[in-house]
């Protein structure tokens, strides 16, 4: 399979048991090793990690034990010809993160979040990646009066500065999302994430990760979110997927809801030579109805969709597009794109 220089990744959570807020798992859990064994055959090159995907129960382990376990995971990756793309601290499940992590109203809980993130940075180093992704799951409010958004912005800044100081080689990509689990999140869009990054003590080491579903949930077009971040050289990761309107975060297969929007995401990534800066991450989940033995098809479909849309992006008649733009004949442009997509 020719991947045109692009590298593809997903996380162990993308092979999922199918639980939702109203029902238990419907598929058995796959061992981590079994998950690793399907990456290559599906065409993937790299693994995305939460800190505890790599080192389960890390809160109960000493730094030496964490190091040892992370090194063992690195070996398992190497055995499969895989690498780690990033590590993300999981700051949303522990009782100390009920009221937020870096922005909790409780100072001990804020320190827990920082300590946990430092451990995630250590794991990233052991896994051989310099990239940390920060999805700020619980930084936000259910009750507007419970926290102060200005103070929260400074707390987030301080947390990122602390991590940049802790590991001088670390790069941090902030993954914005407007809601879920929070009612209102503090870093809902690319603009918020970039503004925060530019204020840090080492802006050259802070970028963003764009997830299609998150942009759509914010009422924005992922295509413009990608272009905005790439205009400043800040798009260091993507979570391509799809989303059917303003409802729960669906993580649908890439391109399965809006083909034209998916085409344009691939087109702008390719026009900006994304293959030189980052991997194509696919944060997709099989729908709950999918039988266990067929529960990797969403990954296969998403990767193939990217490659098919890449061919369409590269075979688009650019001269014809430019002529229509000059003529301001945008209706004909509309038709040209639709005809190109329909083949
Ligand atoms: C949550 C989400 C996460 C992050 C990684 O919506 O997208 O999977 O991508 O922590
Ligand atoms: Mn994501």
What would you report as the Rg, rounded to the nearest angstrom?
A: 20 Å
Mean pLDDT: 98
The structural class is alpha/beta
What CATH architecture do you see?
A: Alpha-Beta Barrel
Low-confidence stretches: none
Distinct ligand kinds: D-xylulose, manganese (II) ion
What's the SSE pattern? EHEHHEHEEHEEHEHHEHEHHH
Shape: globular
Tell me the CATH topology: TIM Barrel
What percentage of amino acids are in beta strands?
5-15%
The oligomeric status of these chains comes to single chain
Helix percent band? 40-55%
CATH superfamily: Divalent-metal-dependent TIM barrel enzymes
Biggest β-sheet: strands ordered side by side in the sheet: 3-2-1-10-9-8-6-4
Distance linking N and C termini: 21 Å
Number of domains: 1
- Total E-strand runs: 10
CATH level 1 class label: Alpha Beta
Total helical elements: 12
Q: Biggest sheet: strands, sense, closure?
A: 8 strands, parallel
Quick take:
With 343 residues, the protein is α/β, with parallel strands linked by helices. It has twelve helices and ten strands.
Can you tag this structure with a few keywords?
globular, 10 strands, TIM Barrel, alpha/beta, binds manganese (II) ion, binds D-xylulose, eight-stranded parallel β-sheet
